[in-house]
Amino acid sequence: MVGGGQAVDKDRVPPGQAVTQKFPVLSYGQTPTIDLAAWTFEVIGLVNNPVRLTWTDFLARANDVVTADFHCVTGWSRLDNRWEGIVVRDILDEARIPPTATHVMAHCYGGYTTNLPLQALLSPDVLLAHRHDGAPLEPDHGGPVRLVVPDRYAYKSAKWIKALELLPENKRGFWELHGYNSNADPWRSERYDF
Ligand SMILES: Nc1nc2c(c(=O)[nH]1)N[C@H]1C(S)=C(S)[C@@H](COP(=O)(O)O)O[C@H]1N2
Ligand SMILES: [Mo]
């Protein structure tokens, strides 16, 4: 289904996905209440230089813009989202990651987790985003800050991000422990592992 009669090139949308103009909210559990004065984002685990940003630090550095499509594993895709924030690769560079680190666990306020191969986070369109389509990111969509990983199904785009933990091996996050795919490439329909 293509909303508003807008024609979309089928090569633009991964297999089994339908375009929506809406922006559905998909959360497991409640939207957490987050105090900006106490908010931090950290890079932890297997790193030579742990990184910790306060909200003030984050705002001072949030100068990157990415326009990207967003694909939920349940079958909807929202095209041309304009995200503003900080490119994750730049922050990971600062953390000086040793070659023994191969995977990452994203940890969220509220307790959600999701795992990714480190390589997937090094793509220049992976963002820590605090704005969406010209407005502050709404709490239900992950505000103050969410991870955005355009090349993976959206369960990898962790809302209310709190930390990235570098790991020496793959560990499964919340939906991945329930059978969703660890890598989650929508172009390969990597929806389920079991
Ligand atoms: N912290 C957290 N992040 C999350 C989720 C969640 O339940 N908690 N749901 C994921 C799923 S399954 C999807 S499809 C997207 C939905 O993002 P949206 O609610 O902004 O559309 O967020 C992902 N990130
Ligand atoms: Mo999802």
Bound molecules: ligand MTE, molybdenum atom
Task: Supply the number of helical segments.
Answer: 4
- Average residue-wise pLDDT: 96
| Helix vs. strand class | mainly beta
| Share in helix | 10-25%
- Taking the alpha carbons of the first and last residues, their distance comes to 28 Å
Give the helices and strands, then pairings.
Blueprint: E1 18-19, E2 40-45, E3 51-54, H1 55-61, E4 64-71, E5 76-87, H2 88-95, E6 103-108, E7 113-117, H3 118-121, E8 127-132, E9 135-136, E10 146-148, E11 161-167, H4 174-177
Parallel strand pairs: 1-5, 2-11
Antiparallel strand pairs: 2-3, 4-5, 5-8, 6-7, 6-11, 8-9, 8-10
Bound molecules: ligand MTE and molybdenum atom.
Question: Explain this structure to me?
Answer:
- The structure is a single chain.
- This protein is mainly beta and 194 residues long.
- It is globular.
- The longest helix has 8 residues.
- It is 12% helix and 31% strand.
- The chain has four helices and eleven strands.
- Strands 1, 4, 5, 8, 9 and 10 form a six-stranded mixed β-sheet that branches. Strands 3-2-11-6-7 form a five-stranded mixed β-sheet.
- It binds ligand MTE and molybdenum atom (MO).
- The site of molybdenum atom (MO) has 6 residues, from loops.
